[in-house]
Amino acid sequence: MAGLRIKKVWVDRKVEKDGLTRKLLDGLAGRPVEIVDSVEAVRRFIRQHSDPVGESKQHLFITAQPSFIRPCPCTPGCLGCGYWTIDLDLNCPFDCSYCILQDYLDGQPLTVAVNREQLGSELEEFFKQRPSGITRIGTGELADSLALDELTENSVFLIERFRDRPGFWLELKSKAGLPPALLRVSPADNVVLSWSLNPQAVIASEEKGTAGLEERLRAASRAVGHGYRVGFHFDPILHYPGWHQDYERVVEAIFRLVPVEAIAWVSLGSLRFPPGLLPLARRRFPQSRIYEHEFIRSAEGKYRYPRPLRQWLYRQLAEMFAGFGAEDRLYLCMETVEVWREFYGKIKRGRQNLAFPFPWQC
Ligand code: SF4
User: Mean pLDDT over all residues of the chain?
Assistant: First the structure.
């Protein structure tokens, strides 16, 4: 597991005897293990450290989650894409300078849930209650979907739950390579493996511990070779001198390795962050230059690039994708109605998904 550096494993007493807990501990053999009554004991330990965020990524907590499935909150004032999330793991071993989890998770260790039977039951209920239309659901909101997969093999568990559930699209979103378990199972038509992409220079300076661009694209190519659909996320798009050429190279690199027919979707989202992230990220990443830009404070309180710049960035990327006949794969992430309108000319309003923009799927 590249990038995984676990100093200590903490086990919630209530799952101490669980079969999956034992399996995870076998996979983490050699690390000190402590049984605790709740996550608070781990958080207290982590908060004593001079860099609690960095420390939180090196402590793994095995527990049971009270519930897993919720609608993606998107951002107030923005047009949602009808996404749902499964909070199976929390936190991430990678360390991106722009990651909002630094501000959001507040000392939460890398957290792995072992009560998968409950997740299985929640999913059954979810499938029953949302019988029509297209529903997308993924594990990549509060974690990287594949960063811990060699340890947990959650991907295999989830793929089997989603197999033969037409209309329910599972997305596993990552900045890691391709875990071997994904090549041992048959792909399912409604499972999308997706990678967040940025130019290699950005990955090297801002996305510590993640797989390089080449490795992510090779992983996508191998996934397609095995029969999976793939997705890509340009999020956050960063604006800096030379950005256009850098992003153009990324788009060209995609289509050298991945055919357009295998791409389910590509999201675009420009850098945005809550005010609380700024002091934290500046302290943790003093060499980063991404916050040295003009931002506006939008209605929901986050800082963003000014709207004309965001619109221009999206238009430029749309042109790059149009060059490969893939502009219909694009949608915007956490953007305002005005920006969507400018991007599409009109807004598609489906029954469940206000902004699900893929005519080739509907
Ligand atoms: S890979 Fe995603 S979840 Fe992990 S640190 Fe980077 S932005 Fe955060």
Answer: 92
Give the C-alpha separation, 181 to 175, whole Å.
17
3-state secondary structure 160-172: HHHCCCCCEEEEE
Residue 1: its pLDDT value, please? 62
Q: So what's the pLDDT on residue 352?
A: 37
pLDDT digits (tens, 9 = 90+) for 10-42: 999 999 999 999 999 999 999 999 999 999 999
Q: For residue 359, what pLDDT is reported?
A: 46
Instruction: Name residue 322's amino acid.
Output: A
Q: Which pairing describes strands 89-90 and 110-113: parallel, antiparallel, or unpaired?
A: antiparallel
The protein residue with its alpha carbon nearest to ligand 1, atom 2, reads 144
Give ligand 1 pocket residues (Cβ under 6 A).
92, 94-96, 99, 101, 144, 175, 210
Closest-CA residue to 331 (of 73, 77, 76, 78) = 78
Query: Who has greater pLDDT, 195 or 334?
Result: 195
Domain ranges of the chain: 67-344
| pLDDT for position 2 | 54
Q: Tens digits of per-residue pLDDT, 132-145?
A: 678 889 998 899 99
Q: 350 CA to middle of ligand 1, Å?
A: 31
d(CA 289, CA 204): 13
Straight-line distance from the first to the last Cα atom of the chain, in angstroms, rounded to the nearest whole number? 38
Give the CATH class of 67-344: alpha beta
Taking alpha carbons only, the member of 112, 130, 6 closest to residue 59 is 6
Q: What is the mean pLDDT of residues 111-132?
A: 93
Q: Is the dihedral of CA 14, 159, 173, 204 positive or negative?
A: positive
Q: Nearest-5° angle of CA 1, CA 211, CA 145? A: 65
Report the length, in residues, of the chain. 362
Compute the distance between CA of residue 162 and CA of residue 169 in angstroms, rounded to an integer: 8
Amino acid at residue number 48: Q
For atom 8 of ligand 1, the residue with the nearest CA is: 99
Neighbouring C-beta atoms of residue 46, cutoff 10 Å: 24
Query: What's the rounded mean pLDDT across residues 351-358?
Result: 45
Query: Hey, what are 345's tokens?
Result: 């000319």
